[in-house]
Amino acid sequence: MMKKLTSRKLFSMLVVALFMLSFAGIAVSQESQETEVEKMTTTGMISDIMPDTGKVIVVEKESGNAVTLTAGPDVDLKNFNVGDHVVVECTSDMVVISISKQTE
């Protein structure tokens, strides 16, 4: 009887330990996914800007393509105007991380 009780207790402790490790694995996995955001940098000229909605259209210097971007939560577009030459860092989802006027 004593041996049976001890083996049940050990089994229960093992199940609890594995359960806790599974949560730790999930937390580490989510953290690594958050840090793997692909960033891109482009230079170009602002062809349209809507500071109230956070949208900005930039014509890329290299390709000439117009790209519509959305300002991230920490990005303020109020100091930018149509015609400004800018350097934009954004995510692959086209969310602006940083934008600055380009000095020529």
Structure write-up:
This protein is an alpha+beta fold. The protein has two domains: 1-36; 39-101, OB fold (Dihydrolipoamide Acetyltransferase, E2P) (Beta Barrel), CATH 2.40.50. It is 33% helix and 37% strand. A five-stranded mixed β-barrel has the order 1-2-3-5-4. The chain is rod-shaped, with a radius of gyration of 25 Å.
Provide the CATH topology of the largest domain: OB fold (Dihydrolipoamide Acetyltransferase, E2P)
- Report the sheet with the most strands, covering strand number, pairing sense and barrel closure: 5 strands, mixed, barrel
Roughly how much helix do the residues carry, as a percent range? 25-40%
* Spatial strand arrangement across the major sheet: 1-2-3-5-4
Q: What's the number of helices? A: 1
Task: Supply database-style keywords.
rod-shaped, alpha+beta, 5-stranded mixed β-barrel
Gist of the model:
The chain has 104 residues and is α+β, with helices and mostly antiparallel strands. The protein contains one helix and five strands, in the order H-E-E-E-E-E.
SSE blueprint and pairings:
Layout: H1 2-35, E1 39-50, E2 55-60, E3 66-71, E4 85-91, E5 95-101
Parallel strand pairs: 3-5
Antiparallel strand pairs: 1-2, 1-4, 2-3, 4-5
